[in-house]
Automatic annotation (TrEMBL):
Keyword set, alphabetical order: ATP-binding, Ligase, Nucleotide-binding
Name assigned to this protein: ATP-grasp domain-containing protein
Biased composition (Basic and acidic residues): 1-12, 452-464
Region (Disordered): 1-23, 452-487
One function term, GO molecular function aspect: metal ion binding
Organism: Reticulomyxa filosa
Residue span, ATP-grasp domain: 30-277
Length: 568
């Protein structure tokens, strides 16, 4: 079925200056494999001519086994990304997406077969100047897997029930193994459920898990030469290996900004602007890792060492902190971070004498992707909306969501849709008045036209000679017939205008405007990030956000007039 491209290794020293290459996942994997950084095992399919046996040989050659992830190399928004458990499932994906034009206007001339990673997925956003990286925010992402019914053959579609699909839905974002066996040949799509802000990135939890993730991201950015501008990086922490693995590196800004400015004090966009307008302020005042939310003792000039109570004999680390705060140009932020992290690793190695504590630290089942923040219980959560079928937005429910206690704002077109709906009364009033003006103008023009005809007829009658009184009777009868037709037409037009005036009520115009608004914001069945109707950003107490999240999902799942979607 497929022909496999044997990847040729590239030198890590080679400069990468083409911006399109940042979206090439194949190139990303080739480059990271030159270093000691963990990367997803993969190979590339370049045409459809290899059989199953040769495909399985290549799987074995690259250390892969089912399940695997299949994706286009240059797409985005999880478009075309599918999880397959069998070769038959992989064939279905290839037959559908091969040579298809993706959302980036690129043709899928090949597909990547990649290792399926299970762990904690993180999104890390950074800004860099002259190779000095600053992490502005970090998020924990949760996805779910759904059976993609678009691959079902017509012959088997009648035997597949909705319950089968529901049973195959499973959230991912933990280290628990994922088994979807009811439909092994069915491809599965990834749908984002939520992203939550890491409010304590400097926490010592799990051997400084989040800081190690950020250090890995800094290494990846340095490896790929991302020395200026923004970076949006997706990685996964693998608890079973206690390591971090790269998923994607995008040399661009995160979407839907701002998100957590109220809690952090800045965002990726504002720091990016600062890096251009005041680079020295960027070096001195912005820490390599944003401060823990609620930590009022945090020194904004440089990242405060979290090992102050343990490094009395480690004066070199404290001295390095001082040097960095005094001269940021002579001391790289990533070097400082690496030294502090190396100290953390040594510190936790010496603590291994406490066997009970070590057992707790390395028990994967007790690991949490979001470290506890002792300073604050406030956070930000992004809820990705899902539509189970094609339909329309129920704007009344959208208003109800906007009134939840932790609601902050909608993203994408939903924010505009809500604003337009809230202004629908004034818009309908405006449309009604404009239509009334149009009808009144048409009536006035018609009246003027009739008055002009009457004056002309009167003038012609006055100027007639007495000899015209003996005109032919046939001409008089024709003139009377024309007058009768004009009278009938005028009566019909009058009734037409009267019916228009009756029809032009606020209620009818409002219904028309509402229908136009629904058509402009149609929703399709959510299969990936691109087809999601939008996001809801919540901010507040974590428990309150959890309750509001449950309410939003209830609105989504309701099929009556109280549901978020009106299905067609």
């Amino acid at each position: 079925m497929f022909s496999i491209k044997h990847e040729s290794k590239t030198n890590s020293e080679d400069a990468i200056d083409n911006s399109k290459q940042w979206d090439d996942n194949e190139l990303t994997g080739k480059t990271t494999c030159q270093k000691t950084l963990r990367y997803a095992k993969h190979f590339e399919l370049v045409d459809t001519c290899a059989n199953e046996s040769s495909f399985m040989e290549q799987m074995k050659l690259h250390g892969l086994s089912f399940p695997v992830v299949v994706k286009p190399p240059t797409s985005s928004g999880t478009e075309g990304v599918r999880l397959v458990y069998t070769y038959q499932g992989l064939r279905r994906v290839a037959e559908k997406h091969w040579n298809e034009q993706n959302c980036e206007s690129n043709t899928n001339e090949s597909l990547l077969v990649m290792e399926y990673l299970q762990g904690f997925e993180y999104v890390v956003n950074c800004v860099s100047v002259h190779g000095v990286h600053k992490c502005t925010d970090m998020w924990h992402a949760i996805k779910s897997i759904y059976a993609d019914q678009t691959y079902i053959n017509k012959s088997t579609a009648s035997t597949l029930q909705d319950n089968d699909i529901k049973e195959d839905r499973q959230a991912i974002g933990s280290s628990s193994p994922l088994t979807l066996s009811s439909q092994p040949d069915m491809p599965y799509c990834f749908r984002y459920e939520s992203q939550q802000l890491i409010t304590a990135p400097n926490s010592p939890y799990n051997n400084y898990q989040c800081r190690r993730v950020i250090e890995y991201v800094f290494d990846v950015m340095t490896l790929f030469g991302v020395s200026h501008g923004c970076a949006h990086v997706e990685v996964m922490y693998l608890p079973c290996e206690d390591t971090i693995c790269l998923i994607e590196l995008n040399a661009r800004m995160h979407g839907d900004l701002p998100r957590a400015t109220d809690l952090i004090g800045y965002n990726q966009l504002s720091i990016f602007a600062l890096s251009h307008m005041a680079p020295m302020k960027f070096f001195k005042d912005i820490p390599p890792i944003y401060r823990d939310v609620g930590d009022i003792k945090f020194n904004k000039r440089f990242i405060k060492s979290p090992f102050a109570s343990h490094n009395a004999g480690n004066s070199s680390l404290a001295q390095n902190e001082t040097n960095h705060s005094n001269d940021s140009s002579s001391y790289s932020a990533i070097q400082f971070l690496k030294q502090s992290l190396s100290f953390a690793k040594n510190h936790f190695k010496t603590r291994g004498t406490d066997e009970k504590q070590v057992e707790i630290d390395h028990n994967i089942n007790t690991l949490d992707p979001i470290p506890f923040n002792p300073y604050s219980n406030e956070s930000v959560r992004v809820i990705f909306l899902h539509a189970n079928r094609d339909g329309y937005i129920n704007f009344d429910v959208l208003v109800s969501i906007s009134q939840l206690p932790t609601f902050k704002r909608f993203t994408r077109s939903l924010n505009n849709a809500l604003e337009q709906y809230l202004q629908l009364d004034s818009l309908s009033e405006y449309v009604l008045k404009e239509r009334q003006k149009t009808i009144a103008l048409k009536k006035l023009n018609r009246i003027k036209s009739l008055e002009g005809d009457d004056e002309k007829n009167t003038h012609d009658t006055t100027d007639r000679n007495d000899d015209d009184e003996s005109a032919d009777d046939s001409n008089n009868s024709e003139h009377k017939q024309n007058n009768n037709e004009d009278n009938i037409f005028d009566a019909g037009m009058g009734e037409y205008y009267i019916s228009l005036e009756k029809y032009l009520t606020f209620e009818t115009v409002y219904r028309e405007c509402l229908q136009e608004l629904k058509q402009a914001h149609r929703v399709t069945k959510t299969m990936d990030l691109i087809t999601s109707p939008g996001c809801v950003i919540l901010q507040g107490n974590i428990d309150d956000m959890t309750q509001d999240t449950a309410v939003i999902r209830q609105f989504e799942n309701a099929n009556d007039r109280n549901g978020l979607y009106e299905h067609t």
